[in-house]
Amino acid sequence: MHGSKTMVRSLLEGILAGSSAGGHADLAVFPPFAYLSLTESILSGTHVLWGGQTLNPNAHGAHTGETSGGMLTDMGCRYVLVGHSERRSIYAESDDDVALRFKAALAAGLEPVLCVGETREEREHGQTEAVVGRQLDAVTGSVGIQAFSRAVIAYEPVWAIGTGLTATPEQAQAVHRFIRDKMTALDVTIAGQLRILYGGSVKGSNAAELFTQSDIDGGLVGGASLTAEDFLAIYRAVA
Ligand code: PGA
Predict the structure, then answer these.
(1) What is the pLDDT of residues 93-108, one digit of tens each?
(2) Packing angle between helix 36-43 and helix 5-17, nearest 10 degrees?
(3) Which residues are the active-site residues?
(4) Is 219 close to ligand 1, i.e. is its CB under 6 Å away?
């Protein structure tokens, strides 16, 4: 819940100016709903894609204040975040809710970005794999592994989001490997092609080291996406 029309315009124009099609990485932005229309008008026909930050699991109906997957598709979205830790913790989205939203995203023709990750307490109790495994099982059990040929996973340790604490490349890689192995057990081809992003205080200074890990395929960036300069430093680190 950051930004304004002025900020969104200058951010997107800055990102467009500092990146290129066929450049270092594929780029997508996830503005608040209020700025999707503006985003569509600025990014249509460019190399930068966009998506929503969440969606309602229902296709339509009397759900005041909510936004459906079909509405996101209508606004030109390619992606939608599902199960971001703030949705899980502040808005009490359960694993089952997340699975329903994932399903609704697919039904609307969107590519869901499924966010998973453990809290600090869960990590300290050695429950990281159990928690991430449970979050993945809720979705694969509901939609099946084939659905992941059109989805992205983002591993975001809750303790690293917006805190300035980043998982070390080794800590992140270990969980990414765990996720890849879990998906491989279900379908080798899909697991091999699956993009697994790391999120949690990614910035220009730590991105290169994170991205060199074999199972880290990119980043989901929060704070450092609020200025074009900080975001582009991460984009350049991909090279
Ligand atoms: P951060 O946020 O990069 O500010 O830690 C990540 C996120 O909210 O997904």
Answers:
(1) 999 999 999 999 999 9
(2) 30
(3) 84, 156
(4) no
